[in-house]
Amino acid sequence: MTTDTQSVDLVDAEVVEQFARAAVLAALISAMAYVSIPLPFSPVPFTLQVLFVFLAGLLLGPVWGPVSLLLYLLAGAVGLPVFAGGTGGLGVLLGQTGGYLWSYPIAAFLIGYLTHRGVDLADPAERSPIALGVILLAGLAIIYGMGVPWMAYVLTLDLVEAFVLGAAAFIPLDLIKLLAAVAIVQSGRMPVGEG
Amino acid sequence: MLVYEPDDTVAHRLDPRSKLAVQIGFAIAALAHTSRRPLLALTALTLVILWSAGVRPFRAIYAYRYALPFLVFAPLVAGLTLGEPWFDVTDASQSAAASYRVFLVIVVSAAYVRSTPVRASRAAIQRTVPGKPGQVVGMGVALVFRFLPLLRDDVRTIRDASAARLGTERGLLERTTHLGTGTLERAFRRADRLSLALQARCFAWNPTLPPLAFSGLDVPAFGLALLLVGTATL
What we know:
The structure holds 2 protein chains of 2 kinds.
Chain A: H1 13-31, H2 49-77, H3 90-94, H4 98-116, H5 129-154, H6 159-166, H7 171-185
Helix pairs in contact in A: 1-2, 2-4, 2-7, 4-5, 5-6, 5-7
Chain B: H1 10-13, H2 16-31, H3 36-52, H4 57-63, H5 68-79, H6 89-115, H7 118-128, H8 131-164, H9 172-200, H10 218-231
Helix pairs in contact in B: 2-6, 2-10, 3-6, 4-6, 5-6, 7-8, 8-9
């Protein structure tokens, strides 16, 4: 058995705060795997995980936003029931929707970087709703840009077929989440930045 | 729901790292093949792996049933063509084989999920990813495990309260915004209390972890992982 014998190396207070937020947000995204708002006009389930990918980038920034999403993916990989429908396991990350899952940290990074114009956190509510909307659209483009080709590859579909199967029905719903993310950030109820 | 269950199967006695290696090897082998014989071999191997963890095949299939609609629709979408012959059977059957192997890759993880407690996974992550990044992800995964039930309760409370006030009659955008704001407010309050508690308890970069050790059983498991990766080149 090995034991760490060096003296205790405490984590800085700011790091603890951001880390705690990233971890709790990862748990919240996981909890959202069980929420599905039924839609009367569509068989596609309306789940909220993409909303929190947007919010991770907007509120936690380009460092801790992606960390939060990586924690979410790792928690799923080691078997916690965090993916859609309350499933877990490494296989889901390599299955047909794996491309979407892997794109989440990258999308959160892009959204965080563009919103905060660098790695220092600013208040995203100061950006105009139009600017936030454009930034989130770029994030959404990353999500589909990775999700659709991966689905095409593992299911041996061409890109148009993969788009029909894995994107067409979801994009209108994601636009609603995009509007909701902008509204949430500008509600003035979100704590932002250090402490 | 499929989660960790204490037991004494072969898989429960393996080191988590060898189980992860087998899953990665299995996925690499599966994604390299769509013809019939490799798929039969992988199916047999899936059954053996599930058996080794004490998971009945139907239970694993049921646990991952959410993936089935996609995998059933994929061959249909692949086969449909605009114009003659309207439905291309070759395209469809190729996609059906591809969907099937994807389902095997997903179902195999049931063995790991049932046989590995979170703290063993955490130790495996921290022994594999060195230094502070390893600490952050190891601790983070443990916290996600701890907070998941609490936040599920938060989400349920907010949805129940909203439904009691006829929130379900509102538009989708309004409902999404309301749920997002409420859950995030609660989550960030929890995060701030957690951060205070972590600092009060000397949250450090170098805590002591449970011991992990490879046993004789892990040698064949790693051998199997390497063999599976090797078959991808066949």
